[in-house]
Design brief:
This protein has 180 residues and is an alpha+beta fold. The chain contains two helices and 13 strands; from the N terminus they run E-E-E-E-E-E-H-E-E-E-E-E-E-H-E.
Length: 180
């Protein structure tokens, strides 16, 4: 049995879930998310909860158990996303380095000769205040993927700390060469 998969996902007030054709649709105050699920896993829904069920003959298969827990976790992430949403913050460290939102692009001046651009995906909003980039959205995957893309454009340099950092993670700096 999957310990995560067998737990039902409770639906808070204002959130509706429906299943049709291998796709779970979760609708709430922050938007609608659609989660496709594998045919080996069955999803059942009622007014208060969503349950992920697997046939008893398939429970012994390791792959099926993994899909069971993964499907349940994806549905839980969607319910959390449409109720409260997800937010990540990035910090730009460097003299004269900045970012700005221009239409559907995030433009970065981070020490290169040219300006870098990152297309903002639909369903994700980006706000820039001084050197902090705040990325919010209902889809956890889209928010995390966009932050990883921006972070990868100028990874933190370990000796003097320049780069684009995740704001809530501590930056480990290396010690430079010592003079004898």
């Amino acid at each position: 049995m999957s310990r995560i998969g067998k737990k039902p996902v409770d639906l808070p007030k204002g959130v509706k879930a429906s299943v049709s054709g291998g796709v779970v649709s979760v609708e709430g105050p922050k938007g609608t998310l659609k989660i496709p699920h594998r045919p080996e896993v069955n999803v059942e829904t009622d007014e208060q909860r969503v349950s992920v069920v697997v046939d008893d003959s398939m429970v012994g298969d390791k792959k099926i158990r993994a899909l069971w827990g993964t499907t349940r976790a994806l549905i839980q992430n969607a319910v959390t996303g449409v109720t409260s949403g997800y937010e990540k913050k990035l910090k730009i460290v460097g003299v004269g380095w900045n970012a700005q939102v221009a239409g559907q692009f995030l433009k970065l001046n981070v020490g290169y000769a040219n300006q870098l651009q990152a297309p903002i995906p639909t369903g994700v909003s980006v706000v820039v205040e001084k050197d902090i980039i705040t990325v919010t959205g209902a889809d956890k995957h889209a928010v995390g993927q966009f932050c990883a893309l921006v972070h990868g454009m100028r990874k933190p340099e370990p000796y003097n700390g320049k780069g684009i950092h995740y704001a809530n993670r501590p930056m480990r700096k290396k010690e430079g060469k010592k003079v004898k």
